[in-house]
Amino acid sequence: MAPILPNTQNTVFEKKPNEVSENIADKIPTTAQSTDSDKVEDHGVDTEFLIVGAGPAGAALACFLGSHGLKGIMISSAPGTANTPRVHITNMAALECLRDIGLYEELQKLGSTGEAHMQHTRWCHSMAGEEYARIHSWGNDPRRKGDYELASPCGPFDLSQTVMEPVLVRHAALKGFKCRFDTTLVSFNEEKTGLITATIRDEISKHEYHIRTKHVLQTIAFLSQGTTLKRGTIIMTGTVPGVGVMRSPKVVLNDGDDMRVEIENIGTLINKVHYE
């Protein structure tokens, strides 16, 4: 008669799960351990270019660098691309640059051309109220239109940031630039080696880490700063003469300032600036 052997198979299944569970539990850190480990073991990220800002300026810069085979990381403190129109008039010089990297035709299909919506600059009491004056603008004056058309293969058009930014960010990503939203530049220091170490914060997890790079390029956010006019004031769809961030010295409008425009045979129109 054959000897009765112990049920080794059952014995294995009775003991092994507990053993495995204990081993895994020993290796899984607690939340506190994990947080401390993240701070200590942060080895950073290396990249050639770090672009701070993913608006029209930052995203376009990433596109231009990417068109030359350069790669990098683009960060933005915003949760995503623009959700309001903001900067929208796109001039011929800017469009010529975008044409060089193959984006002009795509953007042209998305924009509003001069023939349809950009014939004039208007001065009016409200968007649907009494109109005080209008002038031809953006190359639509019949006396100068031919000069504009001969000067450039691109015509200006209206393209809001809500439409432009997704196109630029997508193109930059296809060319090798990673984009991270909800991400803030905390500080940066130049090392003796010539590299720059930037401290970056993920605004969702609040985790901070380092990016080591050769170049940090920070775009100007002033042009995207939202401004509105108080109810009942004159609305002007144009730029006040003498005002601009590209002038030297820079001339900007602050909250509470008056925008004054002299209109022949009408007088002085005044807008009160209000920052949101």
UniProtKB/TrEMBL annotation:
Residues 46-216 form the FAD-binding domain. The keyword Acetylation does not apply. It holds the Pfam family FAD_binding_3. This is FAD-binding domain-containing protein. InterPro entries: FAD-bd, FAD/NAD-bd_sf, Fumarylacetoacetase_C_sf, RIFMO-like. Keywords: FAD, Flavoprotein, Oxidoreductase. One of its GO terms (molecular function) is oxidoreductase activity, acting on paired donors, with incorporation or reduction of molecular oxygen, NAD(P)H as one donor, and incorporation of one atom of oxygen. The keyword Oxidoreductase applies.
